[in-house]
Q: What sequence folds into this?
């Protein structure tokens, strides 16, 4: 088989077209695999707020030197009474008040975050009924609020209040829900 001088031009054209199709395919694959989020859209700000809320719960549930976390100590020492809008935290409950102080300092540590409100609820089961009790209230959650939760296990040796002692259900798994929203 003999080639003429003109045949090489067709081969180069076909090769170039195939390379171009491969490049367009790769570009299309890359563009579909990444999500482009324009800065400061509602979705982006909600994601940032959710991540901050979740991170705060994780940090407060990090065990210290005595293998107890701040979150666990607050829940184990909770007296069982709910907060009201007028009292923010249950009256006389120093454990929950300490938790509120820590949350407030974390939410307001950044000047851009000073317009964030939050609410903390404790969800537990007493053997027959599920209870959802607000223990920190800083306003009413907005429609755009984000919620992060953390499970805390209370054992017999962790109890610091008569409320949990009268329940006498160990281990007691308690869900702590932190809702936050922009004002």
A:
């Amino acid at each position: 088989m003999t080639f003429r001088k003109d045949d090489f031009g067709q081969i180069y054209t076909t090769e170039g077209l195939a390379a171009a199709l491969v490049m367009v395919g790769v570009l299309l694959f890359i563009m579909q695999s990444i999500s482009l989020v324009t800065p400061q859209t509602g979705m982006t700000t909600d994601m940032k707020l959710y991540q901050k809320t979740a991170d705060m719960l994780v940090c407060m549930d990090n065990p210290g030197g005595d293998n107890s976390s701040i979150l666990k100590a607050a829940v184990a020492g909770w007296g069982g009474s709910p907060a009201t809008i007028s009292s923010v935290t249950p009256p006389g409950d120093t454990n929950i008040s300490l938790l509120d102080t820590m949350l407030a300092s974390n939410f307001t540590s950044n000047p851009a975050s000073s317009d964030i409100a939050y609410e903390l609820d404790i969800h537990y089961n007493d053997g027959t009924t599920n209870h959802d009790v607000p223990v920190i209230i800083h306003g009413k959650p907005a429609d755009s609020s984000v919620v992060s939760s953390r499970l805390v296990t209370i054992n017999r040796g962790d109890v610091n209040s008569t409320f949990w002692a009268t329940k006498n259900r160990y281990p007691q798994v308690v869900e702590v829900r932190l809702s936050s929203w922009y004002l």
In short: The first helix runs from residue 7 to 33.
